[in-house]
């Protein structure tokens, strides 16, 4: 979603997300029977761009933005001891691990935008500055 305040100023809002669940290949290890990985990523970002006209339909811009992202990664599986062992020594194991992370970033950006009518294409470079860099300054 973008809003055009004037010819030179743009505000933007983005919502990144990814949801995936996949079975990891464990064919190289004979004792692992099942191994699943789930990844969830979602967040919200907002920012401001200032347009600098260069040529007809071509402009440069500089901007600043803020982004919050939540990462969740969950891995689960089960394993059997090798069938080559006697039945008294065979075991079955289950595991599950989960990682939750929150990321906050300040995003200065610079780029070039080409526009014709309502269509735009842009090349943007964003410098990700994580919140942990600013903890010492607060």
Total number of β-strand segments?
A: 8
Main sheet: strands, sense, barrel: 8 strands, antiparallel
Which percent range fits the helix content?
under 10%
Going by helix content, strand content and strand pairing, the class is: mainly beta
Oligomerization status of the protein chains = single chain
pLDDT under 50 segments (min length 5)? none
From N to C, what is the helix and strand string? EEEEEEEE
Number of helices: 0
Notes on the protein architecture:
With 138 residues, the protein is mainly β. Helix content is 0%, strand content 71%. The protein is built from no helices and eight strands. Strands 1, 2, 3, 4, 5, 6, 7 and 8 form an eight-stranded antiparallel β-sheet that branches. It is elongated and about 80 Å long. The mean pLDDT is 77.
């Amino acid at each position: 979603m973008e809003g055009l305040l004037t010819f030179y100023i743009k505000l933007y809002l983005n919502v990144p997300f990814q949801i995936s669940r996949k079975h990891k290949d464990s064919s190289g290890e004979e004792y692992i029977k099942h191994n699943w990985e789930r990844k969830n990523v979602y967040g919200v970002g907002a920012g401001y761009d200032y347009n600098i006209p260069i040529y007809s339909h071509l402009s440069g811009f500089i901007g600043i933005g803020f982004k919050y992202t939540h990462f969740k990664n969950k891995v689960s599986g089960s394993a059997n001891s090798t069938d080559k062992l006697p039945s008294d020594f065979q075991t079955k194991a289950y595991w599950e691990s989960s990682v939750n992370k929150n990321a906050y970033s300040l995003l200065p950006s610079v780029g070039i935008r080409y526009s014709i009518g309502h269509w735009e294409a842009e090349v943007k470079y964003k410098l990700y500055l994580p919140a942990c860099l600013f903890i010492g300054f607060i």
